[in-house]
Amino acid sequence: MHPDSPRQAHALLQQAVPLMRKMDIAPTPYNYGIWYEYVRQSTPKLNQLVDSTIGRLGSLPSFISKELFHQFLVSEEARFNSQHKEKLEEFINTVSNETHNMTENLVALQSAMDKSRHVLSRADRQKHLDKVIHYLDHSTKKALEEVESFSQALSQVNAEVLKLKAELNEIKNNADLDPLTQLLNQRGLERQLYSLIPDSEDDLSLLIMDIDHLKEINHEFGRRAGTALICHISRILSSKKLANSTLARLEGGSFAIILHEATLDFAIKYAEELRLHLNKQRFKSRSGQGIIEQIKVSFGVATIIGQESPNNLIARAGGYLDNAKRQGRNRTASR
């Protein structure tokens, strides 16, 4: 949903309501939400799905409206968070009450129109015309008041939904970040792959890197030293990050890099550049107990094949990383 002024909301409703009446769409909050967004034309995918559904079925069934409402107007997290769910229910109840009032007055206006038409068909005196004017004046004023009230309520709910979406985005972002390095975590990596893979062909590559002998480093210099090394490497990887790439930290000393537009040859070359750069780095533990003369890492590199799933791509890159480890570590493997 978008921030519209009461005047804008009123204008959009004047477009949405006749469309709903024309196709005999039930005046439910879900339907009003969908058709309000439809006439606003700010979500092309929604409009495409509505048009194709009407083309196939001749109308938009309520159960489909509900699905579209949750898909396009409500973020996924809201459906599983009880606090936000209660807030959404409050929004829907507010719009539902206003919808009921507006619908009643639109029905009353329709009745007034029918009466006026009937009177006009038999009108032969001034008092008949006065009666028609009275019907129309009273009914249209009442209907306009309710439409304005509905517009204001919708505008208020709209602002609250925007606030809720901002909260949910913040929660989602925090849930997708690794607290130690502030890079994406495993969940964030998977989300990114799911968003990129449908539009990719053979130019999306995944690099999974792991610090060699991290357990031994933790044992010799302490776990704090291992944690500091992970943070140190995350800063190096960030400094070497390509413009069209995504960086994530997985478990322990493992990192992942998505190259959005990269062939396998390019991805292997980039992995080798990173590995050789890290090999030149020395690392001193915070306790000062010793120095790691050379940071050694292993890479597994995979490029997407056809419509491969994110999980399969991650598994292949992880398998190639295991091969690099078996082949002696501190190397890059792509099979």
From TrEMBL:
Provide the catalytic activity annotation.
Answer: 2 GTP = 3',3'-c-di-GMP + 2 diphosphate
Signal peptide range equals none
- Extract the InterPro entries matched here: Diguanylate_Cyclase, GGDEF_dom, Nucleotide_cyclase, Rev_trsase/Diguanyl_cyclase
Q: What is this protein called?
A: diguanylate cyclase
Q: Which NCBIfam families match?
A: GGDEF
Which PROSITE patterns does this entry report, sorted A to Z?
Answer: GGDEF
- Which Gene3D superfamilies did the record assign? 3.30.70.270
What is its EC class? Answer: transferase
Instruction: List each coiled-coil range.
Output: 147-174
Report the superkingdom from the record. Answer: Bacteria
Record key words, sorted: Coiled coil
> Domain GGDEF: where?
202-335
Has keyword Coiled coil? yes
Q: Name one GO molecular function term.
A: diguanylate cyclase activity
UniProt-listed Enzyme Commission number(s):
2.7.7.65
Record the organism.
Marinomonas fungiae
